[in-house]
Design a protein that fits this description.
Blueprint lengths: L2 H10 L3 E6 L2 H15 L2 E2 L3 E5 H7 L3 E7 L11 E5 L2 E6 L3 H9 L3 E3 L2 E3 L4 H6 L4 E5 L12 E4 L3 H10 L10 E7 L2
Parallel strand pairs: 3-9
Antiparallel strand pairs: 1-4, 2-3, 4-11, 5-6, 5-9, 6-8, 7-8, 10-11
Helix pairs in contact: 2-6
Length: about 180
């Protein structure tokens, strides 16, 4: 797919307001901001890794997209809390599944579930825990060799400034799309 066709398709997606191809300097700056954010404690728990953004930034072409509240966010897990390869917690968007997990004695806070049988790992190895932000699975973009990531707040602000969008508008967000083709 040509770059023009790709951009045209992106702009037709519900919830995509603006798209820009990032320069090498922009990619480097977003990468720096993400590394800085990953070094801080996320969600009050532990350090994190934004796998979605990392993978997107590693592609041949990287696009920043300004989104609004009508973007269809995936109903799959975006966040996993892991310790030594074990999933201790994750976000879940299926109400019936959340209720079932709660009845089984797992800790459910909003959409975030902490698995009861894994809590010992959290207590014993807190320094080995990490929050992993997964690539976004946006149906319109799946199966096309693309990776979509949701940037950290500092990278989000940088991209909004870069694309000339008000930083303080809570209805506007950003995603990063990496493409090899």
């Amino acid at each position: 797919m040509s770059e023009d066709n790709f951009l045209e398709r992106l702009m037709k997606m519900k919830g995509i307001v603006k798209v820009a191809l990032l320069s090498k300097e922009d990619v480097d700056e977003v990468e720096r901001l993400e590394r800085e954010a990953e070094g801080k404690v996320l969600m009050g728990l532990c350090k994190g890794v934004n796998l979605g953004v990392r993978e997107a930034l590693g592609r041949r072409r990287v696009y920043a997209c300004i989104t609004n509240s009508s973007l269809r966010w995936p109903k799959t897990s975006l966040v996993k809390i892991v310790c030594e390869g074990e999933t201790i917690g994750e976000d879940i968007y299926d109400e019936a599944e959340l209720e079932r997990l709660k009845k089984e004695g797992n800790i459910v806070v909003g959409n975030l579930v902490f698995y009861r049988e894994k809590m010992r790992l959290m207590k014993e190895n807190r320094e080995k825990m990490s929050v992993i932000m997964l690539p976004l699975r946006i149906p319109e973009l799946e199966g096309r060799g693309m990776v979509v990531g949701s940037p950290s707040p500092p990278a989000d602000l940088y991209l909004k400034r870069k694309l000339g969008v008000p930083e303080d508008d809570p209805k506007m967000g950003t995603i990063i799309i990496g493409v090899n083709g």
